[in-house]
């Protein structure tokens, strides 16, 4: 199994100069934690993905609507496959190693390469809420961002009412910065967003 070696990739990519999006997403590496495998999404994941993206509790606080049919889910996966092919920003699928079940996604929803800043987004099946799964995935992606992408700041935002996502960001070591008032139009309503972030020096001090 090919798993990202953070330190090795950091030397290869960052040591050669500015990191470009295609340096990372040209061949999105697998990441592994104690319970999770973060890897590319495939069409074989369509049923597992549809199980949670069709759940309105899961989609209550995200920017996208619950999927109404499995064709909606297949369309999203095909979009992700195109992103992989184009070497552009694309999601990791979250696989629960014990069962081999596909249970969510996590990605950098944007990456300002010239400013070394990126933002994390994630979604998880309700069946796995309350188990620390999202926090485990976010911590791994934060580590990857700082050690392999040369980031200096990683941020994440959530709707003001999304206490579950707030807890994930806090447990992942991110700090609350403030509320962005009516900063995004979500499902027909202008929403306040809470902003969290972690800086590279803060991450390094926590790792010691």
Automatic annotation (TrEMBL):
N-acetyltransferase domain ranges (all copies): 36-192
Entry-linked Gene3D superfamilies: 3.40.630.30
Source organism, top-level taxon: Bacteria
Record-linked SUPFAM superfamilies: Acyl-CoA N-acyltransferases (Nat)
InterPro entries (UniProt xref): Acyl_CoA_acyltransferase, GNAT_dom, N-acetyltransferase
PANTHER family: GNAT FAMILY, PUTATIVE (AFU_ORTHOLOGUE AFUA_3G00765)-RELATED-RELATED, RIBOSOMAL-PROTEIN-ALANINE ACETYLTRANSFERASE
Protein name (Swiss-Prot/TrEMBL): N-acetyltransferase
Provenance organism: Pontibacillus salipaludis
